[in-house]
Every structure is written in structure tokens, then in C-alpha cells.
């Protein structure tokens, strides 16, 4: 894979920023707290910044966040120390998503060498948006673009989509969720519903 110097620099800066946010969150929280909510806020700010840069008005934003954990993976909860978070901004029918993940048990599932069954050419990464309820698996909707760190165990993801009226209603009803699939946990290592913020 040929990565430009600028892309590599951006990736390193993104990972450093993510680690700083997590470190500050951990140091500033009681021992029993988990840093994910702060990371969800940072992911939402990234989505908002993207929308503003595209000329969208903040007063028209519908905001959502997703805290991804192994406890929401259905039907079997994997054993992992991973966590992730996403922020999303909906303007009209346009959804902008930004997020981070860390401490995965293994690199993301590679759907080119380990395809879904039946195969789906739209599944291009191990980070997805699905439509479905909290305790059910629902159909794949979108794959997100992923920028993993060199280890493959942490990184960032992003996506921009034009939602159908059904998908907009699903988002409003808490029936769009995100999940992260890894080599070790092919059916999902992390999952979280996109909820209003």
C-alpha cells in the first residue's frame, strides 16, 4: 500500500490526538469511570467541524453519538478490552459520521479475503452501520472508511451518506447501530446504537 507522507502525517496526528483525549479523560475521571463518553464528544465535534466546513448551519444539525462496547454485541458477547465511539451529524438527509476505536483484540476483518456470506461487494471495511434494534442483528447499510494505526488495533473511521426516509426514521427511533468486526471476532467485537445527543 502506497501511503503519501501527508496521509501518514495526518494519521499519526489523529492517533496522537485520540490518545491525548483518552489520557486526559482517564486522568480526569474517577477510577471506575470509562473514557468513552469523552471520546464520543470528541468524535461528535469532528463530525460537526466537517459539516461546518461544508457550509452546513449548526442550528440545523441533528446530533447523535454511539458508545461502542462488547456488551451490545448480539447474540454473543466477545471477550475484549476494546472500546470505540462515534459522533454523527444529520442535516436534511445527509449523515456525517466520525469516530475512533482502540485496544482491539486483533486487526479489523478484511472482507476481501474473508467475505460475508453471502458476499456483499458494498462491505469494504470492518466498521459498519446497520439498521436494527438493540437486541437484534439487522441488515448492513454502509461501510465506513477506516484509517487504522500500524498495529491495526486502533484507528479512526469516517463516512458521509445520503439517508433514505426509512433510514432517517430508524436513526430517530434508535434503530441504526454501528459495529466493528475483527479477525478474532468476525461477527463483531464492538457495537453501539446511534443515540440522540
Give an overview of the whole structure:
25% of the residues lie in helices and 29% in strands. Helix 1 crosses helix 2. A 6-stranded antiparallel beta sheet has the order 6-7-3-2-1-10. Strands 5-4-8-9 form a 4-stranded antiparallel beta sheet. The longest helix is centred in the first third of the chain and has 23 residues, at 5-27. The chain has helices at 5-27, 36-53, 165-172, and strands at 62-68, 83-91, 94-102, 127-131, 140-143, 145-148, 155-162, 176-180, 190-193, 195-196. The model is unreliable at 11-34 (pLDDT under 50). The radius of gyration is 16 Å and the shape is globular. It is α+β, with helices and mostly antiparallel strands and 197 residues long. It has 3 helices and 10 strands, in the order H-H-E-E-E-E-E-E-E-H-E-E-E.
Question: What are the defining features of this structure?
Answer:
single chain; 197 residues; alpha+beta; 6-stranded antiparallel beta sheet; 3 helices; 10 strands; 25% helix; 29% strand
